[in-house]
TrEMBL record:
<keyword id="KW-1133">Transmembrane helix</keyword>
<comment type="similarity">
    <text>Belongs to the binding-protein-dependent transport system permease family.</text>
</comment>
<feature type="transmembrane region" description="Helical">
    <location>
        <begin position="242"/>
        <end position="265"/>
    </location>
</feature>
<dbReference type="GO" id="GO:0000428">
    <property type="term" value="C:DNA-directed RNA polymerase complex"/>
</dbReference>
<feature type="transmembrane region" description="Helical">
    <location>
        <begin position="78"/>
        <end position="105"/>
    </location>
</feature>
<dbReference type="InterPro" id="IPR000515">
    <property type="entry name" value="MetI-like"/>
</dbReference>
<feature type="domain" description="ABC transmembrane type-1">
    <location>
        <begin position="76"/>
        <end position="265"/>
    </location>
</feature>
<dbReference type="GO" id="GO:0005886">
    <property type="term" value="C:plasma membrane"/>
</dbReference>
<keyword id="KW-1003">Cell membrane</keyword>
<feature type="transmembrane region" description="Helical">
    <location>
        <begin position="126"/>
        <end position="151"/>
    </location>
</feature>
<dbReference type="Pfam" id="PF00528">
    <property type="entry name" value="BPD_transp_1"/>
</dbReference>
<keyword id="KW-0240">DNA-directed RNA polymerase</keyword>
<keyword id="KW-0812">Transmembrane</keyword>
<protein>
    <submittedName>
        <fullName>DNA-directed RNA polymerase subunit alpha</fullName>
    </submittedName>
</protein>
<dbReference type="GO" id="GO:0055085">
    <property type="term" value="P:transmembrane transport"/>
</dbReference>
<dbReference type="InterPro" id="IPR035906">
    <property type="entry name" value="MetI-like_sf"/>
</dbReference>
<feature type="transmembrane region" description="Helical">
    <location>
        <begin position="197"/>
        <end position="222"/>
    </location>
</feature>
Length: 274
């Protein structure tokens, strides 16, 4: 298994390897970054605000004199894990509904398809703002809201795949054998959807990162004392005229994470090899 994975990585084009390196970099920082933070995340350690990089503060200080490096290391944890958790929940929920819809067919398929089309037609950020205003913005609620918003998008893709597979001969043979709906979904249809669904999971991850960062920039995302990368951009917006690292670094972190994920997704698509 590890040999096959190493071979696949070697066969990736350069952009895919760059994307993989960026994604792994931010994943490692999300897991171990807080332990490497040189200062407590909320400690006021600099008498100056928006100071530049130096030997004491590698990435300078923010608008309150806190260490930017420590803030970014902690913020990356919330950005990566909230986005990853929401993306996985969205794909799990959307794919489960799509399999149920495709196998049952008839009015069940019609009702679910129309309901998901209705939800999918709503602008994601506006929908998120309404839900956050109604239910609040705790970490758990943000995770569930972000997952709920992107279930319809995954459902549409998974349903299109499942509908095509359900019509295949091997599925009809399974039905003729008397296999139940769960067996057909789990063992006949789902294994043939894995590759496209992996790519879609990556896309959902990117969408959720941008959604959560946008909400945090508006002050409706991750709330103090927690902070994600979007929050770090918002709270240091006054440092933009002086090009303070406190605002540039988290903005570049969001950009590198999303660009890296997109490059990796593109490399994982069929035909994505060099």
């Amino acid at each position: 298994m590890s040999g096959a994975l190493a071979m696949r990585v070697r066969n990736m084009r350069l952009s895919g390897r760059i994307g993989l390196a960026l994604v792994l970099f931010w994943l490692v920082l999300a897991v171990g970054g807080p332990a490497l933070a040189p200062h407590p995340v909320g400690a006021f350690i600099d008498q100056e605000v928006f100071s530049g990089p130096g030997r004491t503060f590698w990435l300078g200080s923010d608008y309150l004199g806190r260490d930017v490096l420590s803030r970014v290391l902690w913020g990356s944890r919330y950005t990566v894990f909230l986005a990853l958790g929401a993306a996985l929940l969205a794909v799990l929920g959307g794919t489960s509904l799509a399999l149920f819809s495709a196998i049952r067919g008839g009015w069940t398929d019609e009702i679910l398809a129309r309901a998901m089309d209705t939800l999918n037609s709503m602008p994601s950020k506006i929908f998120a703002l309404v839900l956050v205003a109604a239910f609040g913005s705790s970490l758990t609620l943000l995770l569930l809201i972000a997952a709920f918003i992107y279930i319809p998008g995954n459902y549409r893709i998974a349903r299109a795949l499942a509908i095509n597979l359900v019509a295949m001969d091997f599925v009809q043979v399974a039905r003729a054998r008397g296999e139940g709906a769960f067996h057909i979904a789990r063992y006949e249809v789902l294994p043939n959807m894995i590759h496209p669904l992996l790519a879609d999971t990556g896309l959902r991850f990117v969408f959720v990162v941008l959604l959560l960062s946008g909400l945090s920039f508006l002050g409706l995302g991750v709330q103090p004392p927690y902070a994600d990368l979007g929050s770090l951009v918002r709270e240091n917006i006054s440092g933009l005229p002086m090009a303070a690292p406190a605002i540039i670094v988290p903005a570049l972190a969001i950009a590198s994470l999303t660009v890296g994920a997109n490059l990796l997704i593109d490399a994982l698509k069929p035909g994505g090899k060099a």
